[in-house]
Specification:
The protein is an alpha+beta fold and 453 residues long. 35% of the residues lie in helices and 17% in strands. It folds into 3 domains: 212 residues, Uridine Diphospho-n-acetylenolpyruvylglucosamine Reductase, domain 3 (2-Layer Sandwich), CATH 3.30.465.10; 104 residues, Alpha-Beta Plaits (2-Layer Sandwich); 99 residues, 2-Layer Sandwich (Alpha-Beta Plaits), CATH 3.30.70.2740. It contains 17 helices and 14 strands. α10 crosses α13 and α14 runs antiparallel to α15. It starts with a helix and ends in a 13-residue tail after the last helix. It binds flavin-adenine dinucleotide. The site of flavin-adenine dinucleotide has 36 residues, from β2, α5, β7 and α13.
Length: 453
């Protein structure tokens, strides 16, 4: 029996994807790095259908890869035969629960739709990424996404109250609870958050909402060194009384790549730039003055909405501008903030020693210690940089590990960084991770060959 016959006996006709354009888009990853091959692409419309699919896949040992918005950058939703499971029809948004400040949504909702639903109810959902127009809530949970507001609100893990998950054997775990506290046993949702589709299919989630922030002050600062950037962060943290929301680092190279791509004149010219934002309150209104008193003279405050938007466009366009420019070797890392300056100096020295003409594009969420550390070699217009990828990765990741950092801060592991996980985790941790995987997915059908080294 063909897979088509097998699934069509249990699913409605529109749950089997036949649109070639849609299939092609799902089979090529965002960076156009991995070309997948699926035996069938399914797009179920109900949790019951997902359960049916998983039961069939279990019975026939068919691999299943869940896919959301396909914006992940480490090949997490790639597939080599089996069922590619698109969650795009899980796009229902329930009314906001204002008393418990939460919202229950299908895992296929786009992130920006959830932000908008919260806004319409006079509340705020703080997860914010440059890919928010295309990534899905299920993908955000599976990758434990971060973004620009982690400093104040935490990662996706901190924003999930409850989950509905279909396990590899088709069983359903449904805990779409608005409870903010529950210590009755292990909090199992945390197993699935950040598990990159390897333990089950997330079908719905209950998410925390917050009061909307007051008006923002947006600051652009020039700094001569990473130490100065961290000093600025410390002063803002101390004097903003918890209202600092974002603190983004942009190197000169990153700024120029984005500015040229957008045909926008960069606001200033320095080695390092900080773009940060805090909520306007009586206390925080004095922050610009406090910064001047601490010797920060090269600061600009956005004077209107369009200036603020232009600065954020420069920041958020960096990834897309790099992609349009050509091939770079990318790293999504985090290092304790106290070790960042030393890490940046040492890593740059080691890269330059091995590749004297390498261009380092550094930017990211300095406020929580996570950075995008990307390397362009001179022939970036073609793919030859990939032949040096292992060597470059070794240099960057060794420096990350020497500084007690992580090789995967917010994009996950996928296939790209799988082999480095073993260097990051103790043998006891690896054994426990594999035991969890083995218990939930003994047939190894859920997103196989990802994450676990
Ligand atoms: C321009 C750009 C900027 C970005 N900026 C950031 C950023 O600032 N912070 C950040 O954290 N990330 C960022 N990302 C990466 C990416 O957008 C996030 O990782 C996002 O959370 C992935 O969501 P997705 O729906 O696209 O997931 P996909 O790419 O489709 O999948 C990602 C992983 O989740 C699994 N998965 C997807 N849906 C489900 C489900 N319903 N159930 C179980 N498993 C599932 C997949 O199998 C895969 O392993 C950026 C990406 C781009 C292109």
């Amino acid at each position: 029996m063909s897979l088509f016959d097998l699934f069509s006996a249990h699913l409605s006709a529109d749950e089997i994807v036949r649109d070639d354009d849609k299939i092609s888009a799902l089979l090529l990853d965002r960076r156009e790095r991995y070309q997948s091959r699926a035996d069938i692409v399914l797009s179920p419309i109900s949790t019951q259908s997902v359960q049916n699919i998983m039961r069939i896949c279990s019975a026939h040992k068919i691999p299943v890869v869940p896919i959301g918005g396909n914006t992940g950058l480490c090949g997490g939703a790639t597939i080599d035969g089996g069922v590619l499971l698109s969650l795009d029809k899980f796009n229902q948004i329930n009314p906001v629960n204002t008393a418990d400040r939460c919202i229950t949504v299908g895992s296929g909702c786009l992130l920006y739709q959830v932000q908008q639903a919260a806004k319409d109810a006079g509340l705020f959902f703080p997860l914010s990424l440059a890919s928010e127009g295309s990534c899905q809530i299920g993908g955000n949970i599976a990758a434990n996404a971060g973004g620009i507001n982690v400093l104040r609100y935490g990662t996706m893990r901190d924003l999930v109250l409850g989950l509905e998950v279909v396990l590899p054997n088709g069983e359903l775990i449904s805990q779409l609870s608005p409870l903010h506290k529950n210590t009755a046993g292990l909090d199992l949702k945390h197993l699935f958050i950040g598990s990159e589709g390897t333990l089950g299919v997330i079908t719905a989630a209950t998410l925390k909402l917050f009061p909307p922030p007051q008006e923002m002050t947006t600051l652009w600062a020039d700094c001569v060194s990473i130490e100065e950037c961290i000093n600025l962060l410390n002063i803002l943290q101390k004097h903003s009384l918890g209202t600092l929301k974002s603190f983004e680092l942009i190197s000169h190279t990153a700024l120029m790549i984005s500015a040229q791509d957008l045909h926008i004149k960069p606001p200033t010219n320095a080695k390092w730039h900080i773009l940060c934002e805090w909520e306007q309150t009586h206390a925080s209104d004095r922050l610009p003055e406090t910064l001047l008193q601490h010797g920060f003279e090269h600061i600009l405050i956005a004077q209107n909405v369009s200036q603020r938007q232009q600065w954020w466009r420069l920041r958020e366009n960096i990834s897309a501008a790099q992609k349009r420019r050509g091939v770079s070797i990318k790293h999504d890392i985090a290092v304790p903030i106290c070790a960042l300056a030393d890490f940046v100096a040492r890593c740059e020295k080691n890269i330059q020693a091995a590749f004297s003409n390498a261009e380092i594009v550094l930017f990211g969420h300095l406020g929580d210690g996570s950075l995008h550390y990307n390397i362009f070699l001179p022939d970036y217009a073609n793919n030859t940089a990939y032949q040096f990828e292992n060597q470059i990765n070794s240099i960057v990741y060794q420096a990350v590990l020497q500084h007690s950092g992580t090789i995967a801060a917010e994009h996950g592991v996928g296939v790209l960084k799988k082999h480095w996980v073993a260097k990051m985790r103790s043998s006891a941790e690896l054994a426990l991770m594999k035991a969890v995987k083995q218990h939930l997915d003994p047939l190894n059908i859920m997103n196989p060959n990802k994450v676990y080294p």
